[in-house]
Specification:
It is a single chain. The chain has 16 helices and 22 strands. It has helices at residues 15-27, 70-76, 124-135, 145-149, 172-176, 246-255, 269-276, 306-314, 318-325, 355-364, 394-410, 421-429, 448-455, 461-464, 471-483, 487-504, and strands at residues 3-4, 48-53, 81-83, 89-91, 94-99, 105-110, 150-157, 160-165, 209-215, 219-224, 237-242, 260-263, 281-296, 331-332, 377-378, 381-382, 384-390, 413-419, 435-439, 507-520, 523-524, 541-542. Strands 12, 13, 14, 17, 18, 19 and 20 form a seven-stranded mixed beta sheet that branches. A five-stranded mixed beta sheet has the order 1-9-10-11-2, with no helix packed on it. A four-stranded antiparallel beta sheet has the order 5-6-8-7. Strand 17, helix 11 (394-410) and strand 18 (413-419) form a beta-alpha-beta unit. The radius of gyration is 26 Å and the shape is globular.
Length: 545
């Protein structure tokens, strides 16, 4: 059931109707029915929580991206394969699977008895319908490597689905476990032409939650899916309030209007630290889930010289900045990918802070400070750059201001532009930026999805690297790594790729990101999900505060 909230004019009930309710209520007294069971609208009988999110949950289309929010999509839609702790892949909508000897054919046995939230059956036909809808717009999804090598999908029988690849691709199952785009919309959600790229009729999924009420930019109410095939959530309802401002979000939590604040960058880490010191609340900090990096767009002539990029990389005190802004809750990053992913435990030389060497590199690149000037120039052009950041993210804003000040000491002028996330992403994909805060994907995507976007145009990362001299060789190594069936060769290729990226300084690692959670004491059994983008709501309980 998908209900949009609409404001209406208040009506005065007729006295006769009121009297009728009173009479009916009296007639039920002593009827012998157990009134302790409550009703669906009886708040006292409903276990519910209220959380916040910085932006609207979006259209809840499983096959598209922003503005739909990943945590909310994961509440409604499920994958064939689930990514669990320590990278273990477990059955989800597929109860088992086999792979051909040549690594090109995957056959999935689908779980029987699964229904969508509207009561319709989940089967191989609807799996194929979803795959076909995604592959109709494969260019949109080519950041995910399996999309580029998926050749054919087949319905073998009602509960057997098969996909065939054009060539081996080792992370197929990891790609199918991510939150989007390979999750499954029920038939009633499809538009008449079957093309979901322009929208869906309604968000019908097999997941533990359904979207019951929604008012854009204000709130969304999720209720437990009565048709859910798996272990049902322990709470009945989740209300998500849209609160863009981080300080307002904290104030609402302290007032008791929110039970949970969860995510990355949803509150400042200073605020998290203060809340952690308050015994009235419970706080948790996750393991690293990704790397916070700064993209230096090499396609900009001012940034095309590796000496300039390396000068900027060395030109701010990363360690001090990260400790100060994140209150020591994040760790300064020495490499683009942390070493807790497969193939990333590579010995790379870190780029260390050195102000004098930064100035020397800029001089060598021809960017000189004019007499009495504060901004370096070359061929009459000032070394002036724009840094764009998510204006709802307090950490990005603070880091942008710090880097602006430190690079100012080098003679580099940085103009800061705070944007809505959707606008920011559009500019990344259009290669319309100089400096851009970017995060790698985390589990279960990396390291394979990261190197895939390094080589695949259309998503901003390949374009960021386009002016480095060994770009073609880098792309060739990426393709070889993703298709290799030799573990030793694959490790060697990953090492070469990560070394090149470290030396070219077009992707500057800043810190390893952690998720934060702050919640009222009535919430128990909160656990961070293994998949960075999944929601943490299914297992929690609500007890007495």
């Amino acid at each position: 059931m998908f209900v949009f909230h609409r404001r209406s004019t208040a009506l005065i009930l007729p006295v006769t109707l009121l009297l009728l309710f009173i009479i009916v209520g009296c007639s039920n007294e002593g009827s012998g029915k157990d009134s302790s069971m409550g009703s669906a609208n009886d708040v006292s009988s409903t276990q519910s929580i209220t959380m916040s999110w910085p932006r609207d949950i979006g259209t809840m289309n499983p096959h598209t991206y922003n503005p739909s929010q990943l945590f909310a999509q994961s509440m409604i839609y499920e994958p064939l394969v689930s990514y669990q702790k320590d990278g273990k892949l477990e059955p989800a909508l597929a109860e088992s699977w086999t792979t051909s000897d040549d690594g090109k054919v995957y056959t999935f046995k689908l779980r029987q008895g699964v229904k969508f939230s509207d009561g319709t059956d989940f089967n191989a036909e609807i799996v194929k319908k979803n795959f076909d809808a995604v592959m109709k717009h494969k260019d949109t999804h080519s950041w995910l490597g399996v999309v580029s090598v998926l050749d054919k999908t087949e319905v073998v029988d009602d509960h057997t689905f098969r996909l065939t690849l054009t060539e081996p691709y080792y992370p197929v199952l990891q790609d199918l476990s991510v939150v989007r785009p390979f999750r499954f919309l029920g038939k009633a959600g499809f538009p008449e032409d079957g093309d979901t790229s322009e929208g869906v009729k309604e968000p019908v999924g097999t997941g533990p939650w359904l979207l019951a009420e929604y008012k854009q930019d204000e709130y969304a109410v999720f209720k437990r899916n009565p048709n859910y095939w798996g272990t049902a959530p322990k709470i009945d309802q989740v209300t998500v309030k849209i609160i863009p401002d981080a300080e307002t979000r904290v104030a609402a939590f302290e007032k008791g209007d929110l039970d949970l604040i969860y995510g990355e960058g949803v509150i400042s880490l200073d605020a998290f630290k203060l809340l952690r010191e308050n015994d009235e609340y419970v706080t948790q900090l996750s393991d690293p889930v990704g790397t916070r990096s700064l993209l230096l767009n090499s396609s900009n002539p001012k940034l095309s010289d590796v000496k300039v990029r390396m000068a900027l990389n060395k030109g701010f005190n990363k360690q001090v900045m990260v400790e100060g802004i994140t209150s020591g809750l994040e760790e300064a990053a020495d490499s683009v990918l942390s070493k807790n992913y497969p193939y990333t435990d590579v010995n790379l030389e870190p780029v260390l802070y050195d102000l004098e060497q930064s100035k020397a590199l800029l001089d060598e690149a021809g960017w000189k400070l004019p007499a009495g000037g504060t901004i370096r120039e070359k061929d009459g052009q000032p070394l002036e750059l724009e840094m764009i950041f998510d204006k709802t993210d307090p950490i990005q804003k603070a880091m942008a201001e710090t880097i602006q000040a430190e690079w100012g000491q080098l003679g580099v002028k940085v103009n800061l532009t705070g944007l809505e996330l959707t606008v920011q992403i559009k500019r990344l994909k259009a290669n319309d930026f100089d400096l851009y805060f970017w995060y790698n994907y985390g589990a279960p995507y990396d390291p394979h999805s990261f190197i895939n976007v390094v080589a695949s145009p259309g998503f901003g990362i390949s374009e960021t690297l386009s002016a480095i001299p060994m770009k073609k060789e880098l792309d060739d190594r990426v393709h070889a790594a993703l298709s290799s069936t030799d573990e030793t060769k694959r490790q060697e290729l990953y090492g070469q790729i990560l070394k090149t990226l470290q030396e070219q300084s077009a992707i500057v690692p800043i810190s390893y990101i952690k998720k934060t959670a702050v919640y009222q004491k009535k919430i128990t059994d909160f656990v961070f999900p293994a998949n960075r983008d999944e929601n943490p709501l299914t297992g929690i309980e609500v007890g007495a505060p």
